[in-house]
Each structure stands twice: as structure tokens, then as C-alpha cells.
Design goal:
heterodimer, A: alpha/beta, six-stranded mixed beta sheet, four-stranded antiparallel beta sheet, 11 helices, 14 strands, about 30% strand, globular, B: mainly alpha, about 0% strand
Chain lengths: ~290, ~425
């Protein structure tokens, strides 16, 4: 079990994170937050790339920094910007990473074939990566994160650059892996995790906002999300008054999904809140990229 | 075993880099070109000393020189019955007479002239060594550097030891061994030109390959993947070891090819056992007075060992610097500037400090022709090479230890 106790990170006068308390058991965790909220900082602390200024990260009761290699060998990590060597083939790169991950030489070749098969890159395992598309590179990144069959998989924006078909395959892959390991996915694409995550973690103003199941988080907006039909002319005024969550054209009118504390009009139809609604409502005044 | 595999992966990052390979080829081509150009015109003349060694042995004395002179006079007589001694024959030789002779005869005349040259140098050495006045050098040095107190005493002691050593060389006739005549300056050609060039090229290569290995991940933005793996920041130890091994590997072709060509062009077959203190190796104002009898082959190996040691230390220091700069080419420029500054700075000190300032890697690397030599100004100290290497080895260890500790705590972003 991975536990974060009162974690904080400061860079001089700037506070990146504070008072983060979390607990990870086997399953998929979706880390949702806008740019600059500190999710990459949190992830880098989980993989020992940076050290918290306050608090402790414990794995089975032991601080991860003192566990060192024993902890890191359990980790599979895909950073937000996956760096690779253009003149290497996936096989060469994964062989090098296998050595750094301390894998047994005998099992390396078969594991490389296996993980490249999982991301549908086995056919090109000996091709130089300089010719690969962004999506293919990202899949190499996913393959390397799974290479050592890690117990804790940490993926920072894993679906960036993947096409819809690849995203679907990735979600299936996650579901099959999650049974006996911790999977932490940082993303701003709600649909990537909404259907597969056991728990969603949201950070706001450097602090933990939510750490709960999708349904519990969505229930915070229960009775506050509505849909209504408006003319184009009324939309501008409506936007000033209410937070719109979705707008779509239908039969020459606008169907608007929005948040309101109470039902102020009989024509409004109360709808079931989605995770995306919570995300948009919570971070209405912040950037949502990255 | 796994650690060795990782070290090899790190070494490959620099050893298979096109920049390193191209530089290695260019440097080697330059060295071979220099050796071949410098050898033109003299390499045939130089072979005579090997035939002297074959006929008369590696050492000589009055009897040897007398016998050689007798043999040469006899050769002159059989060449031209008008003459019965080589000196008279050579004095009478004018350009007109020389060019009127056949090519074969010209070669014989050249041979006689060269033999006479070696006999004359050999005969003059007793008086030249007897005229050497190291005490005067001692007084000049103390006066020039305005040494007083401890500094003056220290330098006086060194010169007193040097006087003892010179007396010993004269007493044992260590200087009476055959070598290429001093005016060919073959010691300088090998150690001051060829090997110094290799050493400078070595610095350029070693600094670059070390910076490449150290900064590879940060320059290609793979540091997050690499340092989050099980090996973690301990990878830096492999990187240092890889830099040191890669240094040794690039030095093999750099030294090997140039020296192979050098010893193919110049015939040293009879001279490997000749002492560096040989009177024939007297190139400039003063002869080489090594602190111990050192044969040519020993000097060559020790020089390569010292230069390799310097380059390994430079690799360690560059490794440390690279972790601050994080760009190979900027590190390269800065390291080379530091290296040049160290050399220039050594000349700015006064008094005894100028001697201490010469315990520096740049000075040691740029003067391979002066190793173990008692008459080498500020590099005159006995064991100077070992003191310099040990001092900088310790500095390197301190820097690298600091680097590891700093890197272990550093956030990787």
C-alpha cells in the first residue's frame, strides 16, 4: 500500500502542493487537475524524481526514499514528455531500460516482445524511432512503463497523441492490468478515466479537493446540473448568469447544459451530473490544459 | 554484471557518437601527417645510429671512439687513397667535388660525414659535462625569483640534489650512450610535438565524451524515464566509470596509431635501452638530467602512463562540472578555457608560489618532454609528476564526491 502523509512541496516562496494525504491500493486512480495544479509535481514525488519538502511517502510503512532501489523496481513510469533516442529502435531502447530496471537478462527479450505486442508495435521493434509518429512514440512510452511488470504504474498524460482507436485499446489494457497493481493516471481528458478509474483524485489551489469514486464526486453536483433549450440571441445573457458546461446546436436552437444552485425555471430539465461537469465546475476559472 | 552492462551502455553513448569518431579520425590523420612531414629529409640519416649500436654496442668510451675513428679512417682510405683520416677528407670536400661524384659515392661521403659527426659529439661530451655549472643555475634561479627563507632553502636543496645527480651521471658515464644526435631533436619531436599533440587532442576528446555521457539524458530529455528506473541516481556512478573507461578506450587508437607510425618511420631498434640522460640527447642549452637513470622505453611508457593519469583526472573533473552545466558543448568550451587558464595562471605567481603553481595538470600535460628532468625550471622537483597527479587526484575525488552527494538530493525536473 502506498500512502502519502501531509505531503507538501515548496520552491522557495512558491508552494506547489500542500497537505496532500492519499492512500493507494490496487486499482486505477485518475488524477484530474488543470495545468499548474501540481499533479506532475505529485507524480514526480511518487517516482522519487523530486523530494517532498514536507510529509512522507510510505510504501508498506517504509519511506520510499529510504527504500531506494527496492521501491523503484516496483515502479513503471511514463512522464508527460516521454524522452527517447531517435537513433535507437524500440528494442534497443527497451533493452537499455531493462538494464536500468534491473531485469534478468533471460527474460528481457520475451518481456520486450510482450509489451510491444500490448501496444501493437511488435512489427516495428527493430525500426529506428526517428521515423515514428507521435502516437507510436507514446505507445513505446507505455510499453517501457509496463516493461518490468511493475506493481505501481504511474502514467502522466498517457493518451496524448493517441488516436481514438488507440485510446480505446489503452483503456482495455488498463482494466486488465488493474487487478493486481496500483495504476495512477494523470490526465485532463476526463473520458480517458471516467469509465475505468476506481477513484478520482482532484487537486485545487495546491490542495486535495476530492479523492473518491466517480459516483461520489458526481453526487456533489446532484440537483445542480440542468439542460435547457435557448435561442441564439439569449445565449450571451445566459452565459453571464450561469456556468455553461456544454453547448450544442439542435434544430436551429442551442441545447445548453449548465450549473445552477437551484431550479429557477420549469423549462429546465434536471440531468445526472457527469465527471466532466464536476471538472468544469470546479476549475471554471482555471486553464484546463496539460 | 548488470552494473557492467549499464556502464557499457553509457560508454556507447559517447564512443559511437559521430562527433567523437570524426574527431578521432581527424586527430589521427593530423598526427600521421605531422610525423611524415617532419621526418622528410632526416629519417635516412637517423638510421646510422642503429648501425653504430649494432657494431660498437649501446655504450661508448674513449676506446670505442678511438676504434670507431680508426675504422672510419680506414674506410676513408679505401674510398679515396689520397686520404688516411676522415677529418682531412671531409675538410677537403667541396660542393663541386661532392656533386661531381656519383650518387653511390655521395651516399658514401654522407655516411663518412655522419660517422665523423657522431664520433666528434661523443668525444666532446666529457668536456661539455665537465663545464656544466649547476651551482650557477641555482644562484640564477634564487635571484630571478627573489627567493628568501624557506623558499630559497627548498630550491637550494633541489639544486644540491641535482648537483649530486649530475656528479653521479659523470661518474658512471651514464651520458655515454648512443642516441640520435641532439641537433635532430628527436626527443622533442616525439615528446614535445607528437605526444604533446596527442595529449592536447586527448583533452579535447575526453572532455567532450565525459560531458556527453554525463549530460546525455538531460540533453535528450530522457532524464525522467532514466532516473526513475530502479538504478535511479546511482546511474551517475556508472556514468563516471563509463567516462573513465571511454577515456582509456579512445586513448588506445589515439596513442597507438600515431606511435605505430612514428616508430615505423623512425628506427629506434637499437635505442630502446638508451638513457634519456644520454649526452647525444643534448638538444638545447642544457642536457636532460633525469633524477634517475631512465631508459628510453621506460620514459615512453611512464609518459603515456602520466598523460593517461592526467586525462582520467580531467575526465573526473569534467564529470563534476557537467552536472552543473548540463550542456556538452558549453561544458567543453568551459573546460578547455579552464585548462588554458590554469596553464597561463601558473606564470603569474611570484617567489616560491610560482613553483607551487606549477603543480598543475595543464603544465604537466603540456610538457611531456621535461618529465623527471632536474633542469626544467619550475618543473624541476624530484617526483613533481607524482605530486601533481596525487594533488589533482585528491581534488578530483573531492569534486566527484560532492557531485554525487549533490545529485542524490537534487530534484530531477
Amino acid at each position: 500500500m502506498l500512502v502519502l502523509q501531509d505531503i507538501g512541496k515548496e520552491y522557495g516562496d512558491f508552494t506547489a502542493l500542500k497537505n496532500i494525504n492519499l492512500q493507494f491500493e490496487n486499482g486505477i486512480y485518475g488524477l484530474l487537475a488543470p495545468n499548474g495544479a501540481g499533479k506532475t509535481t505529485l507524480i514526480k514525488m511518487l517516482v522519487t524524481l523530486i523530494q517532498p519538502t514536507n510529509g512522507n511517502i510510505l510504501y508498506n510503512g517504509q519511506p520510499i526514499l529510504s527504500l531506494g532501489e527496492t521501491y523503484r523496481e516496483l515502479i513503471g513510469y511514463l512522464p508527460q514528455q516521454f524522452g527517447y533516442y531517435k537513433h535507437y529502435s524500440p528494442k534497443q531502447y527497451l533493452t537499455y531500460l531493462a538494464a536500468l530496471k534491473g531485469m534478468d537478462k533471460q527474460e528481457v527479450d520475451s518481456r520486450i516482445d510482450h509489451v510491444l505486442e500490448l501496444v501493437a508495435l511488435r512489427e516495428v521493434k527493430d525500426k529506428k524511432m526517428r521515423k515514428f509518429s507521435g502516437g507510436m512514440i507514446q505507445r513505446v512510452g507505455i510499453a517501457q512503463a509496463l516493461l518490468s511488470d511493475p506493481k505501481i504504474v504511474v502514467l502522466d498524460e498517457p493518451t496524448a497523441g493517441l488516436d481514438p482507436k488507440e485510446r480505446a485499446r489503452f483503456r482495455h489494457l488498463l482494466s486488465s492490468l488493474a487487478r493486481d497493481r496500483v495504476i495512477i493516471i494523470s490526465t485532463h481528458i476526463v473520458s480517458d478515466i471516467e469509465s475505468v478509474a476506481n477513484k478520482i483524485i482532484m487537486i485545487k489551489n495546491k490542495e486535495l479537493l476530492h479523492s473518491d469514486s466517480v459516483s461520489t464526486i458526481c453526487s456533489t453536483l446532484q440537483g445542480k446540473v440542468f439542460e435547457t433549450v435557448l435561442s441564439y440571441d439569449d445565449l450571451a445573457v445566459f452565459r453571464q448568469k450561469y456556468l455553461t458546461l456544454e453547448e450544442k446546436q439542435e434544430n436551429g436552437k442551442m441545447v445548453v447544459r449548465f450549473k445552477s444552485e437551484k431550479q429557477e425555471d420549469d423549462k429546465w430539465q434536471s440531468v445526472i451530473p457527469h465527471l466532466e461537469d464536476v471538472f468544469l465546475a470546479e476549475y471554471a476559472n482555471e486553464s484546463t490544459s496539460g | 554484471m548488470k552494473s557492467m552492462q549499464i556502464t557499457w551502455f553509457e560508454m556507447k553513448k559517447a564512443l559511437f557518437s559521430p562527433t567523437i569518431l570524426i574527431l578521432l579520425v581527424l586527430f589521427t590523420a593530423f598526427n600521421i601527417f605531422t610525423i611524415i612531414v617532419d621526418s622528410s629529409g632526416i629519417k635516412n640519416e637517423l638510421t646510422i645510429v642503429n648501425s653504430i649500436v649494432d657494431t660498437y654496442g649501446n655504450k661508448f668510451n674513449h676506446q670505442t671512439l678511438n676504434k670507431m675513428q680508426g675504422d672510419l679512417n680506414a674506410a676513408v682510405q679505401s674510398f679515396d687513397s689520397q686520404y688516411n683520416d676522415a677529418s682531412t677528407f671531409l675538410e677537403s670536400m667541396s660542393d663541386e667535388k661532392y656533386y661531381a661524384a656519383s650518387l653511390e659515392k655521395q651516399q658514401e661521403i654522407d655516411h663518412i660525414a655522419l660517422m665523423q659527426k657522431y664520433i666528434s659529439i661523443g668525444s666532446s661530451l666529457d668536456s661539455r659535462y665537465a663545464d656544466l655549472d649547476v651551482s650557477e643555475l641555482k644562484m640564477d634561479s634564487i635571484k630571478h625569483d627573489r627567493l628568501t627563507g624557506f623558499g630559497a632553502k627548498l630550491i637550494e636543496n633541489q639544486y644540491d640534489l641535482l648537483i649530486e645527480r649530475l656528479d653521479r651521471i659523470i661518474e658512471t658515464e651514464e651520458y655515454k650512450e648512443w642516441f640520435f644526435a641532439g641537433d635532430y631533436r628527436m626527443h622533442s619531436e616525439l615528446f614535445r610535438t607528437v605526444i604533446k599533440n596527442i595529449a592536447i587532442q586527448g583533452v579535447m576528446l575526453v572532455v567532450l565524451l565525459t560531458a556527453m555521457i554525463t549530460n546525455y539524458e538531460f540533453e535528450r530529455k530522457t532524464q525522467l524515464v532514466i532516473f526513475a528506473a530502479k538504478k535511479g541516481r546511482q546511474l551517475m556512478i556508472n556514468k563516471l566509470v563509463a567516462s573513465l573507461f571511454a577515456t582509456l578506450i579512445v586513448l588506445v587508437p589515439l596513442f597507438g596509431l600515431a606511435l605505430a607510425i612514428f616508430f615505423t618511420v623512425y628506427d629506434y631498434s637499437g635505442l630502446w635501452q638508451t638513457n634519456i640522460s644520454s649526452g647525444f640527447n643534448w638538444e638545447y642549452q642544457l642536457p636532460y638530467i633525469t633524477w634517475w637513470p631512465i631508459e628510453f622505453w621506460q620514459y615512453l611508457i611512464l609518459t603515456i602512463v602520466i598523460l593517461t593519469g592526467i586525462l582520467l583526472i580531467i575526465s573526473g573533473l569534467t564529470f563534476s562540472l557537467s552536472t552543473f552545466i548540463r550542456n556538452s558543448y558549453v561544458t567543453w568550451i568551459l573546460s578547455i578555457l579552464l585548462f588554458i587558464s590554469m596553464f597561463i595562471a601558473s606564470g603569474f605567481f611570484k617567489g616560491i608560489w610560482v613553483y607551487i603553481a606549477h603543480l598543475n595538470l595543464s603544465v604537466l600535460l603540456l610538457n611531456p618532454h621535461m618529465y623527471f628532468n632536474g633542469v626544467s625550471n619550475y618543473m624541476m622537483f624530484k617526483h613533481q609528476e607524482i605530486y601533481t597527479l596525487m594533488l589533482w587526484f585528491l581534488i578530483g575525488v573531492v569534486f566527484c564526491t560532492f557531485t554525487f552527494k549533490r545529485f542524490a538530493r537534487k530534484d530531477i525536473v
